[in-house]
Amino acid sequence: MAVEVHYVVVRNGEEKMTFATKKEADAYDKMLDLADSLGEWLQQAPLTLDDEQREGLSFFLAENKDVLGQILRGAAPVETPKKSAKVKAEKPVPTTKEGSASEKQAA
């Protein structure tokens, strides 16, 4: 019998993603915090976005914060955002229907 350790990111009592390492889980949790902050900020934008659009956009911006930072600093981005940019070694296993903005668009 093997023992496996999984790290689960939980938001508002709902499981979001499961990871193999604490480092990956912490990074995802931090990205979700950034997406929440961006979503609140986007509510103040002088344009009309429905909740799903705002959530998708804030999630996309949070996923690609490094590229966004380069653009805001006036530097050309080193790479363009990719659908799999957040996945390096192991893909986390989504535990709910909620996924990345790119996954929502594909559905």
Total count of strands: 3
Strand order of the largest sheet: 1-2-3
Give the low-confidence spans.
84-91, 95-107
Element-level helix/strand string: EEHHHEH
Q: Structural class given helices, strands, pairing?
A: alpha+beta
The coarse overall form would be flat
The chain-level mean pLDDT equals 78
Q: What does this protein look like?
A:
The chain has 107 residues and is an alpha+beta fold. The protein is built from 4 helices and 3 strands. Strands 1-2-3 form a 3-stranded antiparallel β-sheet, with helices on one face. The protein starts with 6 loop residues before the first strand and ends with a helix. The C terminus is likely disordered.
Topology:
Elements: E1 7-11, E2 14-19, H1 22-42, H2 51-63, H3 65-72, E3 93-94, H4 101-106
Antiparallel strand pairs: 1-2, 2-3
Helix pairs in contact: 1-2
Pfam families: YebG
Organism: Serratia grimesii
InterPro entries: Uncharacterised_YebG, YebG-like_sf
Key phrases:
107 residues; alpha+beta; 3-stranded antiparallel sheet; 4 helices; disordered C terminus; Uncharacterised_YebG; YebG-like_sf; DNA damage-inducible protein YebG
Q: How would you concisely characterize the structure shown here?
A:
Residues 97-107 have a biased composition (Polar residues). This protein is α+β, with helices and mostly antiparallel strands. It is 45% helix and 12% strand.
